[in-house]
Design brief:
Layout lengths: L52 H5 L41 H4 L4 E6 L5 E6 L11 H13 L6 E6 L11 H10 L2 H4 L2 E7 L3 H10 L5 H4 L2 E4 L18 H14 L26 H8 L5 H13 L13 H12 L12 H14 L10 H5 L6 H15 L2 H19 L1 H4 L3 H12 L8 H16 L1 H5 L2
Parallel strand pairs: 2-3, 3-4, 4-5
Antiparallel strand pairs: 1-2
Helix pairs in contact: 10-12, 12-17, 17-18
């Protein structure tokens, strides 16, 4: 799907919904005229649909939100510094100091999207009333959360449904968020998906235009229906709040938007052919390719071993979206893939992460999720014994062989960290969510445990796999 993401003047944008909206109930043209501090104004039912086409299309300077189809086109934003910063080698900070905010699960992490970028979710329906939540604390918690991921490419999914007059922040708070989340946070933000936008959201955009850069504006995209996210996120791993699911189902039933993937309602997994490698099981690949290590894993690792050990920021960069899809299609069709002809080592790096993340079951298996998360309670000596037992006795043999193969390569990346800036901590943040995830959604604290476990595997590779 080739869709131009730059909002350039009079171009027509696709829309899957009827543009017929009730009034916001705020009068005409006086949304923020008040002597008191301005606040968000949302209809309390939250049942408005997305707004007028002219608001979505206006602004010839390219700063309007994108609407309808949301597929990135061409080269993903290359806004990064020549010298990549490296996260601290210290373990991720415990969330204890923000427990009063974290307990509401307003912010959650859902692993990586289909381009290998971290996905952070903000759910408005989980915001308690303004009387029970200090929004300044929420802002500090937001920064604390983003600080763990902003050195890598990431995306934000904002579920707007559920924001009412009882839990809405003030307009001044939103301005503070935009202003204080400086370039450190914005440079690697690749997309902000605004799900179920109301008419007021689009009006609010006009109010914010003087404060928001055109470059940032191009990263913000309207998502009118949840199924539009499936092109970009691993939707089956994305736990959407129940109120949002119910609202979306109501809108789909009411507006009957065309479903853009298959006429019979089947998905790629259920229609997998014998050569398919992405989105299937390891057993499917082994049966059809007659090998334990999937060809896509072996081809990408061997190419990266020969060409990318010294590449700065390897595994932390995004790549050309169209090329990624083409390479993935070749692998699924059983066609030969030569990364030397692509001219970008980051293509192979993202393909490897994507293969792992799209497995029907994670490489470390669903059954081992809880035992691995609980490892942080053990002392260091007991941890080694328990990790060895888990790997050798509970992890299926094929999974063990593939894991060992990948980790051996990652230790080689670490051996060249002075050149590539990728320490075991950096690699663990990248690979942790791609090696293991729960059937539901991981909490932020659990994500930290998974990353620490991955770091442990890399740091102790020889004791765990060669002793």
């Amino acid at each position: 799907m080739d869709t131009d993401l730059s909002a350039s003047g009079g171009g027509e944008s696709q829309s899957y919904i009827n543009e017929d909206f009730p009034s916001d109930g705020n009068g005409d043209g006086n949304l923020f005229e008040s002597t008191e501090e301005p606040e968000f104004e949302f209809d309390e039912s939250g049942l408005e649909l997305a707004a007028d086409d002219d608001l979505a299309r206006e602004n010839s300077d390219g700063s309007a939100f994108q609407s309808g189809s949301i597929t990135p086109d061409g080269l993903i934003d290359e806004d990064f510094e020549k010298e990549l910063g490296t996260p601290s080698d210290a373990e991720e900070e415990d969330e204890g100091e923000f427990q009063d905010v974290a307990q509401h699960n307003i912010l959650e992490v859902a692993g990586d999207d289909v381009y290998g970028r971290k996905v952070i979710i903000f759910s408005s329906c989980k915001l308690p009333s303004s009387e029970k939540l200090d929004h300044q604390r929420l802002f500090l918690y937001l920064k604390h959360t983003l600080d763990q991921y902003v050195e890598n490419d990431y995306v934000i999914v904002y579920f707007h449904y559920g924001l009412t007059s009882k839990n809405k922040p003030k307009l001044s708070w939103l301005l503070q968020v935009y202003r204080e989340l400086d370039r450190k946070y914005k440079k690697n933000l690749k997309a902000l998906y605004l799900v179920h936008p109301t008419r007021f959201i689009k009006i609010l955009w006009n109010v914010f235009k003087p404060f928001i850069s055109a470059k940032f504006g191009r990263k913000v995209m309207y998502v009118n229906y949840l199924h539009e996210l499936k092109e970009h996120l691993h939707f089956d791993q994305l736990v959407v709040p129940e109120p949002v699911l119910q609202y979306d189902a109501k809108q789909v039933k009411s507006n009957k938007p065309p479903y853009p993937y298959s006429k019979d309602g089947t998905d790629a997994v259920s229609r997998a052919n014998k050569t398919q490698q992405f989105g299937v099981t390891l057993n499917h690949v082994r049966q059809n390719y007659k090998c334990v290590i999937p060809p896509v894993v072996e081809i990408t690792v061997e190419y990266l071993r020969a060409n990318a050990l010294d590449v700065e920021g390897i595994f932390r960069r995004s790549a050309n979206a169209r090329t990624l899809k083409e390479v993935q299609k070749k692998f699924n069709q059983g066609l030969p893939v030569d990364f030397n002809t692509e001219g970008d080592v980051h293509i192979a790096a993202v393909i490897l992460k994507t293969f792992l993340r799209e497995l029907q079951e994670p490489l470390l298996t669903f059954d081992l999720y809880q035992p691995i998360v609980r490892l942080h309670n053990q002392d260091e000596e007991r941890q080694m014994v328990e990790v060895q037992r888990i790997l050798r006795e509970e992890l299926p043999e094929d999974n063990y062989i593939i894991l060992k193969y990948i980790l051996q390569f990652l230790t080689e990346i670490v051996d060249h960290s002075e050149e590539n800036k990728m320490t075991s901590m950096n690699l663990s943040i990248v690979f942790g969510p791609n090696l293991l995830w729960p059937k539901g959604q991981a909490s932020l604290s659990a994500m930290g445990y998974l990353n620490n476990f991955t770091k442990y595997l890399i740091d102790h590779y020889r004791e765990l796999f060669e002793s």
